[in-house]
Write a structure and sequence with these properties.
Layout: H1 2-16, H2 37-44, E1 80-86, H3 89-98, H4 104-123, E2 129-132, H5 137-143, H6 147-159, E3 168-170, H7 182-189, E4 193-195, E5 205-213, H8 217-228, E6 233-241
Helix pairs in contact: 1-4, 3-4, 4-6
Bound molecules: zinc ion (2 copies).
The site of one zinc ion (ZN) has 8 residues, from helix 2.
Length: 242
């Protein structure tokens, strides 16, 4: 069932965007998987060194053994973060395009690309289960789909690890203000998630997937809830780090 739905989405994307790049609409040199050569290169190349704890860009000689300037000394609920790239340029364009229903084919494609580019890296974390950061049902209904869920599904398939789309549930609608402080964000997100009843997380390593990581407050709170239910480790995978 899951397989056929994914296949259907893929085919629909091909129908809607015949031979055009899903990011820039170019017809030129379209990559066989829906990206033109330029966009494919842009989203698969992360030009910067990255902090392994929070996936933030760091300087070329930064010692990240205990974190970077952004995360050192903070108690992140997760034990590491992996990104496809920085929230910039083509990747930023792609992430913004995903946020409407017609972006679902693009979300699937970015998920597959993520698995291709970072699969080997993620495999070292011995992931037991892949789950998305859920949207509140109202936001999901308004958007038509949860982009993090599409990316997570493709990542799970690529890693050959079980996918649990409903492992977490968003029980509270939270306001989205990008500009507020980290403390305000943390306060806003507290108690927003619940783990699915009956989930067996004891000793498990969970790969938690989202489209963008900004302050890390949302991922931190989701990870904290998973660990309170027995998960041993939570690794975060995001398409783009802001
Ligand atoms: Zn393109
Ligand atoms: Zn860091």
């Amino acid at each position: 069932m899951l397989q056929s739905v994914t296949e259907l989405t893929r085919n629909t994307a091909q129908l809607i965007y015949p031979d055009t790049c899903l990011i820039c609409d170019s017809h030129e040199g379209t990559h066989r998987h829906g990206f033109c050569t330029g966009c494919h290169l842009a989203v698969t190349t992360d030009p910067f060194p990255v902090c392994p704890w929070c996936a933030q860009t760091v300087g070329p000689h930064t010692n990240t053994s205990t974190g970077c300037a952004e995360c050192s000394g903070r108690s992140l609920g997760f034990t590491g973060a992996v990104r496809l790239g920085p929230y910039d340029g083509k990747l930023r364009e792609a992430v913004l395009r995903m946020k409407v229903l017609t972006g679902e084919g693009l979300a699937d494609l970015l998920g597959r690309t993520f698995a291709e580019c970072r699969g080997t890296n993620l495999a070292t974390s011995a992931i037991d289960v892949v789950a998305p950061i859920p949207l509140h049902w109202l936001r999901k209904w308004l958007r038509g789909y949860n982009q993090a869920e599409s990316v997570a599904r493709e990542l799970a398939m690529g890693l050959k690890v079980p996918f649990e789309p409903h492992l977490l549930r968003r029980v509270r609608h939270t306001t989205q203000h990008v500009q507020v402080s980290r403390t305000a964000r943390l306060e806003n997100i507290k108690g927003a998630f619940r783990v699915r009843s009956g989930a067996r997380l004891l000793g498990q390593t969970v790969l938690l997937v989202d489209d963008v990581l900004t302050t890390g407050s949302t991922a931190s709170e989701a990870a904290r809830v998973l660990r309170a239910q027995g998960a041993d480790r939570v690794v975060v995978a995001v398409l783009a780090r802001r």
